[in-house]
Amino acid sequence: MITLLIDGYNLLNASGVEAAPGPRAMPELDRARYGLLDFLVTALTPEEVSRTMIVFDASGNCRRGQNEERYRGLIVRFAQQYPDADTLLEQLIAQHTSPKQLTVVSSDHRVQRAAHHRRAKFIDSEKWYAQLCRRLRAARQAAKQEGTDVAREGEDTLNAAEVSDWLRAFGLSPQDAASPLSSAAGATSASKSNEGHRNAPPRAKDETALEAASEESSRSELAAPQTASKQEGLAGTGQLEDAPPLTCPAPRGAMLEDLGLSKEDLEKPIDAWDGDVAADDRDSRGPRKRPRRPRR
């Protein structure tokens, strides 16, 4: 059933579609008509094409003796036995079995009155052509955008062979690639650390002992300021009397020998040390000389 009825030359004048290429012997009017038909086949859907009839005048000798033809699915009628195309359009509208489902494309008021009389829809050729162009432009933009998205998706996607090549380049296995990024990075750093320890040269025992001694001395040096600061804090709060006294460890025998002292020397009182120091000074200076008397 026909649902779209088009006034052919009326639409051709409103659209300004260029003539289709053809042989030199073909009149320009025929080539313009084929250009319009090609445009309609491109702009309409296949279902709309199968339900469309376009009517042309049969002027001149171009279509003598031929009333109807099919062109790429479109039904093309020529007003061979009618005064003009408008008369044939009025008859087609009057004979239509479901006029409420019919849309008539024509700017001719005579054709529009015939459609209105049968309660069929009608629209000017200029408006319908503009709507068709907008729909065709939107479809082309959507197709272009879809093609761009597909191209981007193809660029961002790696096949299995490329993934394997990248894994080999970074020294990873498929299991590492499937694991989370943090665990893979941790495993990589741990493997590098273990490899560094394995490749390090063996260390001598003296170096190990020296490092242990230096670490112990550094810990003792750090502990001393902390103890002093703790004592100062206690003194500020009045709790120093209750705190245990700071004691210095007794020097060992080796240290006494280095200083030239004995345990008995440590037990002497301070006055005895002063006398010994004075005697040592006299011995070092030698016997005192008597002063000479002045000559008279």
> Residue share in helices?
55-70%
CATH architecture annotation name of the domain at 4-132: 3-Layer(aba) Sandwich
Separation of the first and last Cα atoms: 169 Å
**Unreliable spans:** none
- Name of the level-1 CATH class of the domain at 4-132: Alpha Beta
Structural class: alpha/beta
CATH topology of the domain at 4-132: Rossmann fold
The biggest sheet amounts to: 6 strands, mixed
In total, the number of strands is: 6
Spatial shape = rod-shaped
Succession of helices and strands? EHHHEEEHEHEHHHHHHHH
> How large a portion of the residues is in β-strands, by DSSP E?
5-15%
* Strands ordered across the widest β-sheet: 3-4-2-1-5-6
Rg, rounded, reads 57 Å
| Tally of DSSP helical segments | 13
Describe the structure in your own words.
The chain is an alpha/beta fold. The chain has a domain at 4-132: Rossmann fold, CATH 3.40.50. The chain is 59% helix and 9% strand. The chain is built from 13 helices and 6 strands. It has helices at 8-15, 28-43, 46-50, 85-94, 109-117, 125-156, 160-169, 174-178, 181-199, 205-237, 253-259, 263-267, 270-285, and strands at residues 4-7, 52-57, 68-71, 74-79, 103-105, 121-123. Strands 3-4-2-1-5-6 form a 6-stranded mixed sheet. α1 (8-15) crosses α6 and α4 (85-94) packs parallel to α5. The termini are far apart. The mean pLDDT is 74.
